[in-house]
Recover the amino acids of this structure.
């Protein structure tokens, strides 16, 4: 099986990116080739540099105005899979067409619940706790033209207890993300 090149798009701390760096370190099937972020101050930049990963900083404006050049760059880099791991910008439709069923997103809820614009990170966990849900989890899905509406690759659940806060739920969700995001990538490359 030929090695698959992965680009990770992230806007925040980059803990999922770092987990993937470690998980696929010395793996002959997957190479994390580059990290794309929309913020030069995002924690993912320092994490990527620590692992000697190529980092590209692409602003929201650049993502919209230079879409074809960015797609061309990713194709030149022979990127097979794009992983959105806490990337907060909407992916342009041209990307989705250029990389069909090659862009995946990790979302911190059991979609279709708590998806859509503005539903990310702690916002999701607050909504889950406020609505007294008995369970939550993660959804890893393909990206399409609508926020959080693409075909589901896998979901993993956790219980939400009455004593849970948005922060304690976030910790449970983080554990699921660390365990299942690498498995989703393996599932894709083996199919």
């Amino acid at each position: 099986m030929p090695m698959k090149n992965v680009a990770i798009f992230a806007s925040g701390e980059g803990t999922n990116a770092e987990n993937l760096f470690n998980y696929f370190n010395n793996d002959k099937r997957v190479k994390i080739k580059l990290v794309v972020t929309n913020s030069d101050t995002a924690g993912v930049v320092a994490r990527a540099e620590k692992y000697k990963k190529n980092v590209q900083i692409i602003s929201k404006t650049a993502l919209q105005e230079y879409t074809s050049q960015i797609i061309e760059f990713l194709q030149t880099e022979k990127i097979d899979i794009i992983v959105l791991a806490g990337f907060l910008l909407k992916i342009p439709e041209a990307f989705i067409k250029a990389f069909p069923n090659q862009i995946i997103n990790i979302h911190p809820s059991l979609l279709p619940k708590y998806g859509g614009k503005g539903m990310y990170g702690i916002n999701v966990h607050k909504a889950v706790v406020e609505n007294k849900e008995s369970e939550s989890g993660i959804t890893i899905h393909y990206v399409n033209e609508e926020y959080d509406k693409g075909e589901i690759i896998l979901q993993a659940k956790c219980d939400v207890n009455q004593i849970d806060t948005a922060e304690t739920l976030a910790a449970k969700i983080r554990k699921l993300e660390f365990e299942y995001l690498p498995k989703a990538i393996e599932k894709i490359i083996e199919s």
